[in-house]
Write a structure and sequence with these properties.
By secondary structure, the chain is an alpha+beta fold. Helices cover 42% and strands 28% of the residues. The protein has 2 domains: 112 residues, Elongation Factor Tu (Ef-tu), domain 3 (Beta Barrel); 106 residues. The longest helix is centred in the last third of the chain and has 29 residues. The two termini are 33 Å apart.
């Protein structure tokens, strides 16, 4: 890090002030739904940045004034830019802890909370994922009376990149939607034919009517899943 200029707010870190390393990163927030067949639907809810942590040493005749200047950013809570190498963040200084050893030698440790980083946008993916998850659950309940197996669809939609445009996972999910819709349409045709056939026992008529209603409802949910799947690019 000695050769990489680092700036936080109005301070350009220099000499021993430059940290030997900078800790950054975070996590992806996830909501995991366990389906009745044991499969998982994973909703990606967006990134969450962890705190950025680094340390160094103020040295020389200006050590005290520069340490105070850094601490003033913590006191004010001002939103300031933090840049190093190719990294760009907007942060608030969450903590600044200095160890005063002499007027010309003051080690410090800083922790910054990320407000924003360039190149990231919330997008529609979390919302689309939530809609698909809800429709998949509803389709599963409806399909129980239609005789249509949704396990292949559930498996494909649980793939890590099912909602990412251009990936193999999304292609497989789209194929599973199309296959499921084909099976549902065939079932609707079959149940409709059973209802129109004469003569027919009352029990058979009731069963066919129930299966037809289940298949029609399931088709609505699966069709909407297909529509949302194609709009989930991120």
């Amino acid at each position: 890090m000695k050769d990489s200029p680092i700036q936080i707010g109005s301070i350009d870190l220099q000499d021993f002030e430059v940290p030997p390393s900078i800790r950054f990163g975070g996590r992806q927030r996830l909501a995991v739904h366990i389906l009745s067949n044991g499969q998982r639907v994973v909703e990606r809810l967006g990134p969450e940045d962890g705190d950025i942590v680094f340390e160094g040493k103020f040295s020389g005749p200006n050590a005290e004034s520069r340490a105070r200047l850094f601490d003033n950013m913590r006191l004010s809570g001002e939103v300031v830019p933090l840049t190093w190498a190719s990294f760009r963040r907007t942060v608030v200084v969450k903590s600044f802890v200095a160890s005063y050893q002499s007027p010309w030698w003051i080690p410090y440790r800083a922790t910054c909370t990320v407000v924003y980083q360039s190149g990231t946008t919330p997008g529609l993916a979390p919302l689309v994922a939530a809609l698909i998850s809800t429709d998949l659950s509803s389709a599963g309940r409806s399909a129980s009376g239609s005789g249509i197996d949704l396990s292949a669809l559930q498996t494909s939609l649980s793939a890590p990149n099912a909602l990412t445009t251009g990936t193999a996972d999304q292609t497989q999910a789209a194929l599973a939607v199309a296959s499921t819709l084909g099976a549902l349409n065939a079932g609707i045709t079959r149940y409709s034919a059973q209802l129109s056939s004469q003569p027919q026992e009352i029990a058979a008529t009731v069963n066919a009517a129930g299966s037809l209603a289940s298949a029609v409802n399931t088709r609505c949910y699966v069709g909407r899943i297909g529509t949302n799947l194609t709009s989930s690019g991120n």
